[in-house]
């Protein structure tokens, strides 16, 4: 007698699939699958993946097994989002979460379903996405670092020219809205070429770094201090009028002139000249302020250096 060839589709008829067969599939998955009562949070089903990472459920609740340090249902439990106002399932919710127990990142697919006894349960399928998350975070950190480097002067660690213009224009836009004054101080080291010529370029670099550090310590966090290039620096001072800017420049001038830099063959001193400009009208532009401050700086150099000029 010839037996009829079995139809492969018959093998998958739902009524033929035993609980054991389904459990075999779920326990072979490279993902956490669990089912918990939505009222009591009791774990009803926990696949082998879950047992391997979190241990045997032992009649405990989902928050006791899966999370760390919980004394009750988790504040981030998605149960309320899985049902509508009438308590009917609303469909799957996909979200990403860092597990508090093993610190791995998971993409969770949560869904309210009717269990075989009719009660409402939560089913979660969670896939480990830690590698992807770590790569994303590393990329984000690298991008932030690259952006920082693009805005930073390599020698002194101050803002560079590009950052100075970007940040200052933002402050000026804000000042135009609020009507607050804005001031600019430009300063340039005096006879700096002689420092290089006499003590060498490395000593010049030491002086530049030291003076930048002094300026950084002296200004407020909200002030924008930058090395514009060579031995020329600028500070944009938000909410600052001319007398206050002059006072700051005088403090810097004194700090610089009393600073002594030890270099290979001795010690170096270096002073700086300062030019100041402050906004007087509401139509104020960064270019105008810089132009005025530059003129004042030129006058300070002409008048003998190591001084502050704030005439507009
Ligand atoms: N060590 C060092 N020197 C620099 C750097 N950038 C610019 N310089 C030097 O700074 C000097 C600037 O010289 P000048 O423009 O003649 O100005 P100065 O000698 O300070 O004279 P005044 O500004 O008129 O007082 C030059 O010798 C440049 O080589 C740097 O990053 N490191």
CATH class of the largest domain: Alpha Beta
Shape by Cα distribution: elongated
The amount of beta strand, in percent, is 15-25%
> Can you give the helix content as a percent range?
25-40%
- Compute the separation of the termini in Å: 113 Å
**Residue runs with pLDDT of under 50 for 5 or more positions:** none
CATH topology of the largest domain: Alpha-Beta Plaits
Secondary-structure element pattern, one letter each = HEEHHEEEHHEHHEEHEEEHE
Number of strands: 12
EC number: 2.7.7.65
Protein name: diguanylate cyclase
InterPro entries: Diguanylate_Cyclase, GGDEF_dom, Nucleotide_cyclase, Rev_trsase/Diguanyl_cyclase
Catalytic activity: 2 GTP = 3',3'-c-di-GMP + 2 diphosphate
Characterise the protein shown here.
It is a single chain. By secondary structure, this protein is an alpha+beta fold. It folds into 2 domains: 8-132, Beta-Lactamase (2-Layer Sandwich), CATH 3.30.450.20; 152-309, Alpha-Beta Plaits, CATH 3.30.70.270. The chain is built from 9 helices and 12 strands. It has helices at residues 19-28, 48-54, 62-66, 130-151, 161-178, 192-199, 201-218, 242-257, 286-302, and strands at residues 32-37, 43-46, 93-98, 105-114, 120-128, 182-189, 224-229, 232-238, 261-263, 266-268, 272-278, 308-309. The strands form 3 sheets. The protein has a 5-stranded antiparallel β-sheet. It has a 5-stranded mixed β-sheet with strand order 7-8-6-11-12, sandwiched between helices. Strand 9 and strand 10 form a beta hairpin. Helix 6 (192-199) packs across helix 7 (201-218). The longest helix has 22 residues, at 130-151. The model has no long low-confidence stretch (mean pLDDT 92). The structure holds guanosine-5'-triphosphate. The site of guanosine-5'-triphosphate (GTP) has 16 residues, from strand 6, helix 6 and helix 7. Pfam families: GGDEF. This is diguanylate cyclase. It is an enzyme of class 2 (transferase). One of its GO terms (biological process) is cell adhesion involved in single-species biofilm formation. It comes from Marinobacter segnicrescens.
């Amino acid at each position: 007698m010839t037996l009829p060839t079995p139809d492969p589709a018959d093998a998958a008829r739902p009524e033929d699939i035993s609980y054991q067969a389904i459990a075999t599939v779920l326990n072979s998955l490279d993902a956490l699958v669990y089912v918990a009562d939505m009222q009591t949070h009791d774990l009803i089903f926990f696949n082998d993946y879950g047992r391997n990472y979190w241990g045997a459920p032992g009649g405990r609740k989902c928050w006791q097994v899966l999370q760390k340090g919980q004394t009750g249902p988790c504040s981030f439990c998605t149960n309320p989002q899985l049902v509508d106002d009438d308590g009917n399932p609303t469909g799957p919710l996909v979200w990403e979460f860092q597990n508090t127990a093993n610190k791995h990142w998971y993409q969770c697919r949560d869904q309210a379903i009717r269990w075989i006894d009719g009660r409402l349960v939560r089913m979660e399928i969670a896939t480990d996405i830690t590698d992807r998350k770590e790569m994303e975070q590393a990329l984000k950190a690298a991008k932030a670092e690259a952006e920082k480097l693009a805005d930073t002067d390599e020698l002194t660690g101050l803002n560079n020219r590009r950052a100075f213009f970007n940040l200052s224009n933002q402050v000026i836009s804000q000042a135009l809205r609020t009507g607050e004054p804005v001031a600019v101080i430009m300063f340039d080291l005096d006879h700096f070429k002689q420092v290089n010529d006499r003590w060498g370029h490395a000593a010049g670099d030491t002086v530049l770094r030291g003076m930048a550090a002094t300026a950084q310590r002296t200004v407020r966090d909200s002030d924008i201090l930058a090395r514009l290039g060579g031995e020329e620096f600028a500070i944009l001072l938000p909410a600052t009028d001319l007398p206050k800017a002059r006072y700051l420049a005088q403090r810097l001038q004194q700090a610089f002139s009393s600073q002594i830099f030890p270099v290979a063959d001795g010690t170096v001193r270096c002073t700086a000249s300062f030019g100041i400009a402050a906004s007087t009208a509401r139509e104020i532009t960064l270019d105008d302020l810089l132009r005025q401050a530059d003129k004042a700086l030129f006058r300070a150099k002409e008048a003998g250096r190591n001084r502050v000029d704030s005439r507009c």
